[in-house]
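Dear colleague,

Thank you for sharing your sequence with our group. We've completed the structure prediction you requested, and as agreed, I am returning the results in plain text so they can be pasted directly into your records. Please verify that the sequence below matches your submission; if there's any discrepancy, let me know and we will rerun it promptly.
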Amino acid sequence: MKKFMIFFIAVFAGIVSGCAAGAVSTKMVPLEYSIQKKQPYVVAVQTTGGKETNPAWVSQISNESFKEALVESINKSGAFSAIVKADRADYMLDVDIVDLDQPVWGGIDMTVTMTAKWKLTSMKDKAVVFQENITKPYKAAFGDALIAAERLRLANEGAARENIREGLKKLSELPLTAESKVASAKPPSTDASVLIKQKEVTSAPAGVEQASVEQRAKPDEIPKIIQRSGYTLEYEPMVASLTKGDPNSALTHADTIYNRSQKSGGPKQNKYLSLLERGKTALAAGKYDQCIADLQEAEKRFLTIEGTISLTEGFGSILTDDTAMEYEAEMHEKLMISPYLILAYIGKRDFDGARVERNRTITKINQYIQEKPEERAYLENPFARYLTALMYEMEDKTDDAKIEYRKLKWDQETARIDSKKGKTTDLVILLDVGLAPQKYQKKWGPQKIPTPQGSVSLGFAYAGYAPVPTEVKMSNIYLNEKSVGEAKLLYDLEKTIITQYDKNKPALEAKIAARMTTKILAQVGAKMAAKEVAKNIPFASLFADILVDAAAQTWLANEQADLRGWLSLPKQIKYLRVNGLEPGENTIKIDYGSGVETKKIKVEKDRINIVYFAYAK
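Please find the predicted structure tokens below.
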């Protein structure tokens, strides 16, 4: 028994190291900089020397994530005036990760030292104006993270962060001279000829575009072909109907799956998630009462579900996987329920019901975001805030509306309210575009691990996120066949979901470590017990080992990643507001570049008229 305990402690120490996760780009961006002079030139950026992370090995820094961190750092620090493509740049910045010196095996504290070669080249004459190897260490203490794999990742991120800080400092000290190409960049067109006479179109206020192409956070590298399984496979017919532009058929599929879950032996743990799917597709199909009933029932459960998972469910998830547990909605999912309920109530012309949901939206934003503003800033939901501001405007509570617009940093909207004289007839068009990222399964193992009691089989399955491609190329809006502009980005939900997934990775690693520890204990315990029973029977011990190994292989083969999530959420939400319309019948047409949608609406006098579209292609 003493030998077994020593063995278990050693194995547990290894398992607690967890599965490796790659460095996160946002964690490699310094909080402070030592910029001596902001260079008035535009620069192109490329990175090399990075490595992809194998979950079964050690954390690494990929070229993609390091480039994202470098680009974000240049933008935040102002080290150069802008980041552009190579053919428009004054200088090319190449950063090559020469060495990432990591501890060979674990440790209480982990120190990683990064050496990177920084090279700045003039694009005019191809002269190298700066080249230097920069070496910076960073130590992640035991108190920073219990799991060794996470401490190593933190040390990687810290070393990269310090390297970037030092590199930008040295670049800012250079006496650069070049003919800047900034002036050659044409400003965006301000031609107002597309506007309808006597109608004011409010375009996206400054700050709405959430990230440039260079800055946008990208998900982990994913396979070219995603195999659907489990939950995503079950809901494939619903998703296919949505992408075909047939919300009624999607609603029929969602209803069938929900009813199946309620039958004897059905997957009851997915009941309330199924209600989210049916409620959202009902909204797209214009079935407002169904939408309201489903979303409210689901939300009521999600508000009370935390801490209610039974001991049997919890233990079952350790022995099998998380699909055995009742689904608990992610924070971003909870924050999307009330805004869609507002749209459903407005759709059925129940302003009192919409007002109640408006109040609950504010409560939820305060609960989930404002209680931890720095940690949860990524959950900020411009869609919910905009609907809240519109509702306040409808009630003539202009001061409250301006508070929400200020939180959105929409100064021109507060200015519009201040200059407004009397009531106007306005139209707000809201578009759900594409589909949110969906989970796909990753598996590691099974792999044989030798132990004093014989080899054991280890393996695990976990979920990654894959962005769903969209065919949308534009969102040009026409009112009675006259162009009123293009819808602007309101909320990049895809970015929020990917960010939330990155933040949840440490918890995912801890759960995998616990599950693998349980598998080791179960297999070693079974082999020890079998050997004890069969010690006086010739060859029985060998056969017992074979049986335990076969059972372990079956156990691992049956493990499935938890692929559940609100599949019918959009990739992005866009909007356009048109002020000063004439009341009456109107036809709205939206050209997506891959299809067209039209709706006939009645614009009511002296009101803000809200119209909702959903285009999932």
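Summary note from our side: Confidence is low (pLDDT under 50) at residues 1-17, 182-220, 307-320.

Kind regards,
the structure core
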